Automatic annotation (TrEMBL):
Domain of life: Bacteria
Membrane-spanning residues: 12-32, 79-97, 109-126, 131-148, 189-209, 221-240, 261-279, 309-328, 340-359, 366-384
Keyword set, alphabetical order: Membrane, Transmembrane, Transmembrane helix
Boundaries of every Glycosyltransferase RgtA/B/C/D-like domain copy: 82-200
Protein name, UniProt field: Glycosyltransferase RgtA/B/C/D-like domain-containing protein
Pfam families the UniProt entry points to: PMT_2
Length: 493
């Protein structure tokens, strides 16, 4: 396959991947004007921290909210947050290249790793959101890059920062401890552990007093729920594998190499163990593993031999069968969801496997696989582009209203965008479900939505018996694959 002249150098190829990444992200932001609800909770936390207040009931850790503060002070916080996570994502891609090259000394392996990371549907979508995923993914990869360079004090700083970004930062720190103890490197152990210990003190204090640990209990598990973890790993890069890493790769490693790679292995094992405990949060949790896994994956994809073509075809067909089965029966949030995108993806994937197995054209196959990743990325991102859009549009309308507004949605958007208005949160344990009660308390408008909370505690307003007491003045509907999501604003008359 002929490479264009402007893509001859490694720097040009890396820049081209980053440019594609930026263009796709800009397009996604154009289609998705609002953020997920938890983003606005981070904004509230940032606002409190900017006034030197640490909310006692806050379950989130402070680092990400701290770096969001400039967006509250000098610009639109959503725009600032998106620029911030995009910048962090680009740093992550650069670090993927550097880490891969430092290990394997081949630019083609490194560029393949960058492409796998940048175009993974999981990583692209979740690192696009103004959440901790982009920052934590970067810190995890940076920790292993610094570990490879044996800078233990700097490693301690990064682990400390990770520990006050997400609770999973505790796992990151613990992953390095056995290596230092096995090596009997007690001096560097003390250097490494000194800073994270203080960060972990904060983490455990917050964790013991936080409802964070109770969240998985609200998810109803079944034996089939756990298939999302192997399924997520199998399709983590948005491609259909035709080779699976075998135990032969491990058996070829010397004991010295296995000890050196033990922090990497431990972190993956600890993370997957956590995933089994918190299936409800998947596939979001896969995000911080992708930059790390893309480094060996890039090498594995480009260095494999094709002498067992029948085995490769069988594995590809088996993975394809798993993909179709999971998609049709369990609707797990991986790879693709829309039928149109699915057909295009399968056609490209079939062409890629033919190019590799029948024609032995690795460059053509990888190019086609990359195109397939873009298709799955679009499908995954398109599926979630309208999240909370009905609430967002209604709040733009509500900003022009005068009078007390009551709401019950838990998306986080209302509390943020109407924070300067006269708003009150409706809790059915404190408020009687009667329109007359709202009117007697000076409520003039009510926002009713089925976004996030299908029970919609203000739904009593929509009963036929209340039609003479309320008047709908705004409605926004979104057809979500047959389920109608809506937000309505009622005037109390």
């Amino acid at each position: 396959m002929t490479v264009p002249l402007f893509l001859k150098s490694t720097r040009a190829k890396f820049s081209f991947i980053c440019l594609i990444f930026l263009l796709l992200r800009a397009f996604f932001y154009f289609l998705s004007p609002t953020e997920l609800g938890d983003t606005y909770n981070f904004f509230h936390f940032s606002d409190a921290l900017s006034h030197f207040i640490y909310p006692v009931t806050e379950k989130r850790l402070p680092l990400f909210s701290l770096i969001l503060i400039p967006g509250l002070l000098f610009s639109d916080p959503v725009v600032y947050g998106r620029v911030l996570v995009t910048g962090i994502s680009l740093l992550t891609l650069f670090l993927v290249y550097r880490y891969s090259f430092s290990l394997f000394k081949k630019s083609n392996f490194s560029l393949a790793s960058v492409a796998l990371c940048a175009l993974s549907p999981f990583y692209f979508y979740w690192s696009s959101r103004v959440l901790t995923e982009a920052l934590f993914s970067f810190l995890v990869l940076l920790a292993f890059y610094i570990f490879y360079r044996k800078k233990y004090f700097a490693l301690g700083i990064i682990c400390a920062l990770a520990a006050i970004t997400r609770y999973e930062g505790v796992i990151l720190m613990i992953s390095f401890i056995p290596y230092l103890l096995i090596k009997k490197d007690f001096r560097n152990f003390v250097i490494f552990i000194s800073l994270p210990v203080f960060a972990l003190g904060l983490v455990f204090i917050r964790l013991l007093n936080s409802p964070y640990l109770l969240e998985p209990s609200g998810f109803h598990y079944s034996p089939w729920s756990f298939f999302i973890i192997p399924a997520g790993l199998l399709f983590i890069f948005g491609i259909i594998p035709h080779r699976i890493p075998s135990l032969n790769l491990i058996s070829k490693c010397s004991v010295k190499k296995m000890i050196e790679y033990s922090p990497f292995a431990l972190f993956i094992i600890f993370s997957l163990s956590l995933f089994f405990l918190w299936v409800a949060a998947l596939p979001r949790l896969f995000c911080f593993l992708i930059p790390l896994l893309s480094v060996p994956a890039g090498r594995f994809i480009l260095s494999q031999n094709n002498d067992k073509k029948i085995v490769n075809i069988l594995i590809w067909c088996l993975c394809l069968g798993f993909l179709i089965y999971f998609r049709q029966n369990y609707r797990f949030q991986f790879l693709f969801l829309d039928k149109g995108f699915a057909l295009v993806f399968l056609l490209i994937s079939f062409s890629a496997i033919i190019s590799l197995i029948a024609l032995n054209k690795k460059s053509v196959a990888f190019t086609l696989a990359t195109l397939g990743m873009v298709v799955s990325l679009f499908s995954y991102s398109f599926y979630f582009k309208d999240v909370y859009i009905s609430v967002y549009k209604s709040l733009q309308f509500a900003n022009n209203l005068e009078g007390k507004i009551i709401y019950s949605d838990e998306t986080g958007l209302t509390g943020w965008y109407l924070k300067n208005k006269n708003i009150v949160y409706f809790d059915d344990t404190e408020w009687p479900e009667r329109v007359k009660s709202l009117k007697s308390n000076g409520v003039r408008y009510a926002i009713v939505t089925n976004e996030f909370d299908e029970l919609r505690r203000l739904v009593f307003i929509e009963k036929k018996s209340n039609r003479s007491e309320v008047k709908m003045i705004f409605e926004k509907k979104i057809n979500d694959r047959g389920y109608m999501r809506y937000t309505r604003i009622y005037e109390i008359i």
